[in-house]
Amino acid sequence: MSYSPVPLINGLIIDTQEYLTSQKITVTKEEKNLLKRTLENELTKSLSSQTNTPTQIVNNFLLENYELSQKLTPRSFSEETFFLIMQWGVNKASKVRK
Which of 1, 33, 52, 75 is the most exposed place for a label (fewest CB within 10 A)? Predict the structure, then answer.
């Protein structure tokens, strides 16, 4: 089975933007693009080279760019993105085990 990080990256971007909006924080196009590049830089590496989970990447981004220290969990995201995070984890675990 082939795995693509693109749906996960897109879901994380949409849900993170919704989270920031709920916190009364406006997200500029540049900030959205920075989040996309940040996620792509990590999640397009080989699975064995990835050192952070999707939620760690988002939490680090929120801390560095918005000084938000509240930690999001996989359940903080939409049901679809939660499923994609779990799929990423299962895929990573199966590759690491080999």
Answer: 1
Task: Locate 21 and state its tokens.
Answer: 């909006």
Q: Which residue has the tokens 């499923």?
A: 83
Q: Where are the domains of the chain?
A: 6-44+51-91
CA 60/CA 46 separation, integer angstroms:
20
Round to whole Å and give the CA distance between 34 and 81: 19
pTM (two decimals): 0.93
Contact 60, 41 (CB under 8 A): no
Contact 32, 13 (CB under 8 A): yes
